[in-house]
Known about the structure:
- By secondary structure, the chain is mainly beta.
- The protein has a single domain (1-378), classed as Beta Barrel (Porin), CATH 2.40.160.10.
- It contains five helices and 17 strands.
- It has a 16-stranded antiparallel β-barrel.
- Strand 13 (273-286) and strand 14 form a beta hairpin.
- The radius of gyration is 23 Å and the shape is globular.
- The model is unreliable at 8-16 (pLDDT under 50).
- This is Long-subunit fatty acid transport protein.
- Keywords: Signal.
- Residues 1-17 form the signal peptide.
- It comes from Leeuwenhoekiella marinoflava DSM 3653.
Amino acid sequence: xxxxxxxxxxISGLANAQITPEFEIGxxxxxxxxxxxxxxxxxxxxxxxDTQLLMGLSQKLYNNWRAQFVLGLQFPDANSxxxxxxxxxxxxxxxxxTNIFKVGRxxxxxxxxxxxxxxxxDAQQFVYALNPFxxxxxxxxxxxxxxxxxxHIFKQRFSVSIHGENFYDSLExxxxxxxxxxxxxxxxxxxxxxxNRNILQQIxxxxxxxxxxRPGYSNDFDSSVKNLLFSxxxxxxxxxxxxxxxxxxxxxxxxxxxxxxxxxxFDYTRTQSTSLFGTFRYLKQKLERPHYQISVGGGYKSxxxxxxxxxxxxxxxxxxxxMGQNFDxxxxxxxxxxxxxxxxxxxxxxxxxxxxxVYSFSQIFNKQFGDREDxxxxxxxxxx
Length: 384
């Protein structure tokens, strides 16, 4: 009888034992020396913006689902008013094999592609659907938002996402209501099959509707700023040693017809515009690991509804060399040119030279899951 009681107590204890979660930590250091030459002045600065630390806890639930909590902090741009540290990722995710629910702060779906630039905001005005509630001081306000979204995955390659966001409003910083909604459709080849002979790697569409207050309009849809994104990645030479790809994204901003001149950054994000950006990249693999990569890219943005011809040009060229495990050194040259009203906001032109050191680290403890992506996939990558 005592043995039966002991076994019952043991079974009860095992049933109530705490399940230790999977713990992941990721870090990324981005350090560069920047030489800026523009039409008015020249300067040199040291830059460690986008350096960040990410931590995640994943827990198996009592069914086929699992939960993940992620906390991340980032060092923002030096001229931002975000303070010393910006919490770029604070969210909870519930997922199974085909469904993903996410709530919290993380990257918004204002960009469908990841381009081979030193920092993800190097082509900000060309590759992001810009936040029309922001005064433009901080690039993070276009990238991150408080999100509530649901994604369903079909056959491991097709995903449909319905998302709502609260983007930071510079005029009402304490307003946490959803001020944007959208829908994304994406076909993406899994990372494990990237080196197959498939030319089409990714293609996607995304629609973002920002609920702005448009003078003279009472209907929420008519008063909104609307953005449509198209993005694709093509493997021009999907060779495991000498790999060449092409990345492209186009953004059509269906802005307000009545904005015919730019008085501030709010006008810039709310007027009609068309943005195009693309890059060609060559990646050399050596002994089944990335060795170095070289890329060139360019962008063009036209604001056709303004009373004065206004457009923007961008050219970027860079190279990264892998010196050790996830340790890269790189060089980047960027040239921007603005005409018309955009010249009043951003200056006539700028040349920027950057020498950079990038180190990435990711480690999983008590591994239990085969993840779709690790923590560092939440953010910008370099040689990949």
